[in-house]
UniProtKB/TrEMBL annotation:
The keyword rRNA processing does not apply. This is DMT family transporter. It is a multi-pass membrane protein. Its main location: membrane. It is found in: Membrane. Residues 7-137, 147-274 form the EamA domain. It comes from Alkalimonas collagenimarina.
Amino acid sequence: MQSNLLKGALLLLLAEACFAGIGALVKYSTGLASEAQVVFFRNGFALLLMLPFLYTHGIGLLKTKRWYLHAFRALTGLTSMYCFFYVLGQLPLAQAMAVLLLSPFIVPIIARIWLKESPSQITLIAIALGFVGVLLALPAPAAGLTWVLLIAMAAACLVAITKTTIRAMASTEPAVRTVFYFSLLTAVFSVLPLPFYWQPLEWQAWLAFIGMGALAAIGQLAMTQAYTLAPASDIGMWTYSSVVFAGLFGYFFWQEPVTMSWLAGVAVIFYAGYVTTRQRLW
Protein backbone atom coordinates (compact mmCIF):
# COMPACT_ATOMS: atom_id res chain seq x y z
CA MET A 1 0.00 0.00 0.00
CA GLN A 2 2.82 2.42 0.89
CA SER A 3 4.65 1.63 -2.35
CA ASN A 4 1.46 2.03 -4.38
CA LEU A 5 0.77 5.43 -2.83
CA LEU A 6 4.23 6.71 -3.75
CA LYS A 7 4.02 5.31 -7.27
CA GLY A 8 0.57 6.81 -7.71
CA ALA A 9 1.79 10.24 -6.60
CA LEU A 10 4.79 10.15 -8.96
CA LEU A 11 2.67 9.00 -11.88
CA LEU A 12 0.18 11.77 -11.21
CA LEU A 13 3.04 14.30 -11.22
CA LEU A 14 4.10 13.02 -14.64
CA ALA A 15 0.51 13.22 -15.87
CA GLU A 16 0.09 16.80 -14.68
CA ALA A 17 3.34 17.84 -16.38
CA CYS A 18 1.98 16.37 -19.63
CA PHE A 19 -1.37 18.11 -19.20
CA ALA A 20 0.35 21.45 -18.54
CA GLY A 21 2.36 20.84 -21.70
CA ILE A 22 -0.87 20.23 -23.63
CA GLY A 23 -2.19 23.51 -22.24
CA ALA A 24 0.90 25.30 -23.49
CA LEU A 25 0.52 23.78 -26.96
CA VAL A 26 -3.19 24.64 -27.05
CA LYS A 27 -2.36 28.23 -26.13
CA TYR A 28 0.31 28.28 -28.83
CA SER A 29 -2.13 26.98 -31.45
CA THR A 30 -4.76 29.62 -30.64
CA GLY A 31 -5.19 31.55 -33.88
CA LEU A 32 -3.60 28.76 -35.93
CA ALA A 33 -6.66 26.48 -35.75
CA SER A 34 -10.27 26.43 -34.59
CA GLU A 35 -11.15 24.98 -31.21
CA ALA A 36 -12.93 22.06 -32.88
CA GLN A 37 -9.76 21.25 -34.85
CA VAL A 38 -7.59 21.46 -31.73
CA VAL A 39 -9.86 19.09 -29.79
CA PHE A 40 -10.19 16.59 -32.63
CA PHE A 41 -6.52 16.39 -33.57
CA ARG A 42 -5.46 16.28 -29.93
CA ASN A 43 -7.63 13.17 -29.52
CA GLY A 44 -6.92 11.81 -33.00
CA PHE A 45 -3.14 11.78 -32.60
CA ALA A 46 -3.49 10.34 -29.10
CA LEU A 47 -5.53 7.48 -30.60
CA LEU A 48 -2.90 6.84 -33.25
CA LEU A 49 -0.25 6.57 -30.55
CA MET A 50 -2.44 4.07 -28.68
CA LEU A 51 -2.88 1.73 -31.68
CA PRO A 52 0.39 -0.17 -31.00
CA PHE A 53 -1.06 -1.15 -27.62
CA LEU A 54 -4.07 -2.68 -29.40
CA TYR A 55 -1.70 -4.62 -31.65
CA THR A 56 0.35 -5.80 -28.66
CA HIS A 57 -2.58 -6.85 -26.49
CA GLY A 58 -4.81 -8.07 -29.31
CA ILE A 59 -8.52 -7.57 -29.80
CA GLY A 60 -9.04 -8.88 -26.28
CA LEU A 61 -8.07 -5.43 -25.06
CA LEU A 62 -11.48 -4.16 -26.18
CA LYS A 63 -13.51 -6.73 -24.25
CA THR A 64 -15.35 -5.05 -21.41
CA LYS A 65 -18.64 -5.22 -19.55
CA ARG A 66 -18.33 -1.64 -18.38
CA TRP A 67 -18.69 0.14 -21.70
CA TYR A 68 -21.15 2.58 -20.14
CA LEU A 69 -18.45 3.89 -17.79
CA HIS A 70 -16.01 4.26 -20.69
CA ALA A 71 -18.64 6.22 -22.64
CA PHE A 72 -19.49 8.33 -19.61
CA ARG A 73 -15.84 9.13 -19.00
CA ALA A 74 -15.31 10.04 -22.65
CA LEU A 75 -18.30 12.41 -22.68
CA THR A 76 -17.33 14.19 -19.46
CA GLY A 77 -13.68 14.33 -20.51
CA LEU A 78 -14.48 15.68 -23.97
CA THR A 79 -16.85 18.33 -22.61
CA SER A 80 -14.21 19.45 -20.12
CA MET A 81 -11.74 19.70 -23.01
CA TYR A 82 -13.97 22.05 -24.99
CA CYS A 83 -14.52 24.20 -21.91
CA PHE A 84 -10.88 24.26 -20.89
CA PHE A 85 -9.45 24.89 -24.36
CA TYR A 86 -11.77 27.85 -24.67
CA VAL A 87 -10.59 29.21 -21.32
CA LEU A 88 -6.94 28.80 -22.37
CA GLY A 89 -7.57 31.28 -25.18
CA GLN A 90 -8.92 33.85 -22.73
CA LEU A 91 -6.52 33.69 -19.76
CA PRO A 92 -2.75 33.45 -19.14
CA LEU A 93 -1.53 29.84 -19.07
CA ALA A 94 -0.82 29.56 -15.33
CA GLN A 95 -4.07 31.27 -14.44
CA ALA A 96 -6.09 29.07 -16.79
CA MET A 97 -4.46 25.93 -15.39
CA ALA A 98 -5.24 27.09 -11.86
CA VAL A 99 -8.99 26.84 -12.26
CA LEU A 100 -8.66 23.10 -12.90
CA LEU A 101 -7.12 22.85 -9.45
CA LEU A 102 -10.61 23.06 -8.05
CA SER A 103 -10.97 19.40 -9.07
CA PRO A 104 -9.05 18.03 -6.04
CA PHE A 105 -11.70 19.65 -3.86
CA ILE A 106 -14.46 18.02 -5.85
CA VAL A 107 -12.88 14.57 -6.26
CA PRO A 108 -13.15 13.57 -2.56
CA ILE A 109 -16.78 14.71 -2.49
CA ILE A 110 -17.68 12.62 -5.55
CA ALA A 111 -15.57 9.69 -4.31
CA ARG A 112 -17.34 9.84 -0.94
CA ILE A 113 -20.82 9.78 -2.51
CA TRP A 114 -20.11 7.38 -5.37
CA LEU A 115 -17.28 5.13 -4.18
CA LYS A 116 -17.83 5.44 -0.42
CA GLU A 117 -14.19 6.51 0.05
CA SER A 118 -13.69 8.60 3.18
CA PRO A 119 -10.77 11.05 3.00
CA SER A 120 -8.86 11.38 6.25
CA GLN A 121 -8.83 14.58 8.25
CA ILE A 122 -5.19 15.12 7.28
CA THR A 123 -6.11 14.79 3.61
CA LEU A 124 -8.84 17.42 3.97
CA ILE A 125 -6.44 19.79 5.73
CA ALA A 126 -3.81 19.22 3.04
CA ILE A 127 -6.36 19.91 0.30
CA ALA A 128 -7.27 23.20 2.00
CA LEU A 129 -3.57 24.08 2.24
CA GLY A 130 -3.17 23.33 -1.45
CA PHE A 131 -6.00 25.66 -2.32
CA VAL A 132 -4.40 28.41 -0.23
CA GLY A 133 -1.20 27.81 -2.16
CA VAL A 134 -3.05 28.22 -5.45
CA LEU A 135 -4.50 31.53 -4.27
CA LEU A 136 -0.98 32.71 -3.40
CA ALA A 137 0.58 31.45 -6.62
CA LEU A 138 -1.77 33.03 -9.12
CA PRO A 139 -2.72 36.63 -9.87
CA ALA A 140 -6.30 37.85 -9.48
CA PRO A 141 -8.37 37.45 -12.65
CA ALA A 142 -8.96 40.48 -14.81
CA ALA A 143 -12.26 42.31 -14.47
CA GLY A 144 -15.04 41.21 -16.81
CA LEU A 145 -13.94 37.59 -17.02
CA THR A 146 -16.49 36.15 -14.59
CA TRP A 147 -18.19 34.15 -17.36
CA VAL A 148 -14.85 32.68 -18.41
CA LEU A 149 -14.21 31.57 -14.84
CA LEU A 150 -17.65 29.97 -14.68
CA ILE A 151 -16.82 27.91 -17.75
CA ALA A 152 -13.50 27.05 -16.13
CA MET A 153 -15.28 25.91 -12.97
CA ALA A 154 -17.53 23.69 -15.08
CA ALA A 155 -14.41 22.18 -16.64
CA ALA A 156 -12.96 21.52 -13.16
CA CYS A 157 -16.15 19.72 -12.08
CA LEU A 158 -16.10 17.56 -15.20
CA VAL A 159 -12.42 16.73 -14.68
CA ALA A 160 -13.19 15.61 -11.12
CA ILE A 161 -16.00 13.37 -12.39
CA THR A 162 -13.68 11.94 -15.05
CA LYS A 163 -10.96 11.12 -12.54
CA THR A 164 -13.39 9.51 -10.12
CA THR A 165 -14.78 7.39 -12.97
CA ILE A 166 -11.27 6.02 -13.53
CA ARG A 167 -11.17 4.91 -9.91
CA ALA A 168 -14.61 3.32 -10.26
CA MET A 169 -13.36 1.21 -13.19
CA ALA A 170 -10.01 0.31 -11.63
CA SER A 171 -11.13 -3.06 -10.25
CA THR A 172 -11.87 -4.54 -13.69
CA GLU A 173 -10.36 -2.26 -16.34
CA PRO A 174 -6.57 -2.18 -16.93
CA ALA A 175 -5.01 1.22 -17.57
CA VAL A 176 -4.27 0.51 -21.25
CA ARG A 177 -7.89 -0.43 -21.99
CA THR A 178 -9.22 2.61 -20.17
CA VAL A 179 -6.93 5.00 -22.03
CA PHE A 180 -7.55 3.32 -25.39
CA TYR A 181 -11.31 3.62 -25.06
CA PHE A 182 -10.97 7.23 -23.93
CA SER A 183 -8.82 8.06 -26.96
CA LEU A 184 -11.11 6.15 -29.34
CA LEU A 185 -14.40 7.58 -28.10
CA THR A 186 -13.23 11.18 -27.75
CA ALA A 187 -11.78 11.03 -31.29
CA VAL A 188 -15.10 9.70 -32.64
CA PHE A 189 -17.24 12.21 -30.72
CA SER A 190 -15.04 15.20 -31.56
CA VAL A 191 -15.15 14.55 -35.32
CA LEU A 192 -18.84 15.50 -35.43
CA PRO A 193 -18.45 19.31 -35.25
CA LEU A 194 -15.22 19.34 -37.28
CA PRO A 195 -16.75 20.04 -40.76
CA PHE A 196 -18.50 23.15 -39.42
CA TYR A 197 -15.30 24.72 -38.03
CA TRP A 198 -12.66 23.64 -40.55
CA GLN A 199 -9.98 26.10 -41.63
CA PRO A 200 -6.64 25.69 -43.49
CA LEU A 201 -3.77 24.63 -41.25
CA GLU A 202 -0.09 25.62 -41.32
CA TRP A 203 2.74 23.22 -40.49
CA GLN A 204 3.18 24.78 -37.04
CA ALA A 205 -0.35 23.71 -36.15
CA TRP A 206 0.33 20.13 -37.24
CA LEU A 207 3.45 19.97 -35.06
CA ALA A 208 1.44 21.27 -32.12
CA PHE A 209 -1.25 18.63 -32.72
CA ILE A 210 1.32 15.82 -32.80
CA GLY A 211 2.83 17.11 -29.57
CA MET A 212 -0.61 17.27 -27.94
CA GLY A 213 -1.32 13.69 -28.98
CA ALA A 214 1.95 12.38 -27.57
CA LEU A 215 1.56 14.23 -24.28
CA ALA A 216 -2.10 13.20 -24.04
CA ALA A 217 -1.30 9.51 -24.48
CA ILE A 218 1.50 9.63 -21.90
CA GLY A 219 -0.51 11.74 -19.50
CA GLN A 220 -3.63 9.57 -19.73
CA LEU A 221 -1.64 6.39 -19.17
CA ALA A 222 0.14 7.89 -16.18
CA MET A 223 -3.04 9.34 -14.65
CA THR A 224 -5.05 6.16 -15.19
CA GLN A 225 -2.35 4.00 -13.64
CA ALA A 226 -2.00 6.46 -10.75
CA TYR A 227 -5.69 6.24 -9.84
CA THR A 228 -5.56 2.48 -10.28
CA LEU A 229 -2.78 2.22 -7.70
CA ALA A 230 -4.14 4.65 -5.12
CA PRO A 231 -7.47 6.16 -4.01
CA ALA A 232 -8.42 9.42 -5.70
CA SER A 233 -8.99 11.06 -2.33
CA ASP A 234 -5.37 10.38 -1.28
CA ILE A 235 -3.36 11.36 -4.37
CA GLY A 236 -5.72 13.87 -6.00
CA MET A 237 -3.81 16.55 -4.11
CA TRP A 238 -0.92 16.22 -6.56
CA THR A 239 -3.13 17.67 -9.26
CA TYR A 240 -2.01 21.01 -7.83
CA SER A 241 1.44 20.43 -9.32
CA SER A 242 0.11 21.39 -12.75
CA VAL A 243 0.21 25.05 -11.71
CA VAL A 244 3.95 24.75 -11.19
CA PHE A 245 4.52 23.31 -14.64
CA ALA A 246 2.16 25.86 -16.17
CA GLY A 247 3.98 28.68 -14.43
CA LEU A 248 7.31 27.46 -15.78
CA PHE A 249 5.96 27.10 -19.32
CA GLY A 250 4.35 30.52 -19.11
CA TYR A 251 7.61 32.09 -17.96
CA PHE A 252 9.83 30.49 -20.60
CA PHE A 253 7.50 30.79 -23.60
CA TRP A 254 5.35 33.87 -22.91
CA GLN A 255 7.45 35.74 -20.34
CA GLU A 256 4.67 35.58 -17.75
CA PRO A 257 6.25 36.87 -14.53
CA VAL A 258 7.31 34.60 -11.65
CA THR A 259 6.62 36.55 -8.45
CA MET A 260 7.52 35.92 -4.80
CA SER A 261 3.83 35.25 -4.19
CA TRP A 262 3.90 32.58 -6.89
CA LEU A 263 6.97 30.96 -5.33
CA ALA A 264 5.35 31.02 -1.88
CA GLY A 265 2.23 29.43 -3.30
CA VAL A 266 4.27 26.69 -4.97
CA ALA A 267 5.98 25.94 -1.65
CA VAL A 268 2.62 25.62 0.12
CA ILE A 269 1.24 23.41 -2.65
CA PHE A 270 4.13 20.98 -2.45
CA TYR A 271 4.07 20.92 1.34
CA ALA A 272 0.38 20.04 1.21
CA GLY A 273 1.11 17.26 -1.28
CA TYR A 274 3.93 15.99 0.93
CA VAL A 275 1.63 15.87 3.95
CA THR A 276 -1.02 13.99 1.96
CA THR A 277 1.43 11.34 0.82
CA ARG A 278 3.40 11.00 4.05
CA GLN A 279 0.33 10.36 6.20
CA ARG A 280 0.19 6.78 4.92
CA LEU A 281 3.92 6.21 5.47
CA TRP A 282 4.11 7.23 9.13
